[in-house]
Amino acid sequence: MISGVHLQPELKRAFEELGFSELTDIQREAIPLIQKGKDVIGQSFTGSGKTVAFGFPILEKTVHNKGLQVMILVPTRELCGQVCNEMRKFAKYKRMSIAEVYGGISINPQIQELRHADIVVGTPGRILDHMQRGTLRTIDIKTLVLDEADKMFEMGFIDDIKKIISQLPRERQTLLFSATISHQVHEVVKNYMRNPEKVKVQSYVDKGKLMQYFYSVNSRDKFSLLVHLLKREEPKLTIIFCATRSRVDVLSRNLYKQGINAQPLHGGLSQNRRKRTIEMFHGSKTDVLVASDVAARGLDIKNVSHIINYDIPKTSKEYIHRIGRTARAGEEGKVISLLSEHDHENFRNVLEDRSLVIEQLKLPEFQRIPFFVSDKDRHFGARRDFRPRSGARHGYSQRSSHKYGEHRRPYHQREGRSHEGFGERREYSSESRGSYHSRRFGHS
Predict the structure, then answer these.
(1) Taking Cα atoms as reference points, which of 309, 211, 224 lies closest to residue 260?
(2) Alpha-carbon torsion (287, 293, 299, 301), positive or negative
(3) What is the pLDDT of residues 75-95, one digit of tens each?
(4) Whole-prediction pTM value?
(5) Do residues 367 and 224 touch, judged by C-beta distance below 8 A?
(6) How far apart are CA 190 and CA 196, in angstroms?
(7) What band does 278 get if pLDDT is binned at 50, 70 and 90?
(8) What domains sit in the chain, N to C, each tagged with a CATH number?
(9) 383-386 and 366-368 strand pairing
């Protein structure tokens, strides 16, 4: 018996060997309900321990060689691999065949795995592909898990999920885990779950140990400031979030040229490359992960001391997902957002969540260093150091909305260039830059 929860001896042994000294809130509340066969809605953020919450009770009820009994749907390939690896660890002392299926790799080895699988973990598109091919039999499925449900729906998997559920036995247990309960999540709950019990837990992040800051910086100085902060802060592990794949690639290359051990992670990389990068970061063989939101969603990586928003996310929900990867389990964490001209609108959206208190810091002195858009392109020129002008505001002001002359425009707005070579050209009006001098961020 573990803190009021009973587990089979072989599962209890694995639980203790994995170092789980006590249950998290969601585990303590969800495991008994799942053991009783209830449908469960678990609302929790990444890092709350939800894989343990559904994994151990599912393994208790699954019998080896009795057909495919459990289907676990996840939004990304990375999360698929992570959940599958965790389930295999949980089943260390209980014979179990667990298959992982996702797109981007050959389907033939997956077909072989599914022939003998007791549990399948997969992304909706590839799961549906197997079902349509007849290589995944659903007749014996007793449990369906929708993990990171809100993210799957955001990524456009809602129709695939409905098709999958329509082909599953009606007499089954359905478990849904989601950070937020959106309209689409409500729809799935209403149409496909039976009298579900709801378990809602607070974020695993320790807000008392989470420090949140932002710098207001010109776009041409953003990379130089980033390098300065990485070298000054000396973080354990850092995740830098970017808005696009191309920005992830270019930023990681430039950091590497500055002697910073950075690796990119986004959906455009091969699965082997992505898997290798995550393993390196888990093993602290690389210090900095430059990632897109989709690629990093659901990853449970311990000892992340710093989150840096190189690009500001579009919503407060995405911001909260990002910062949820630090300040866990009593550890301190720091979030630093680099706010330049084109980030203003997104930052306004983030601050619609009044619970967020983000303090503005004065720009430090830092050396201007070159930023290469590509190996062939020109780069931002270097100068010895950068000091904010005397008397200049570091917050927003009406001065930010003046029209630049050609000689004063940021580099990315000249001659049709895109910002640091990323994506299409954007135009920023005076309204989008706005006047914020009368507002204190993080406070109503």
Answers:
(1) 224
(2) positive
(3) 988 889 989 999 999 999 999
(4) 0.62
(5) yes
(6) 9
(7) confident
(8) 9-200 (3.40.50.300), 207-433 (3.40.50.300)
(9) antiparallel
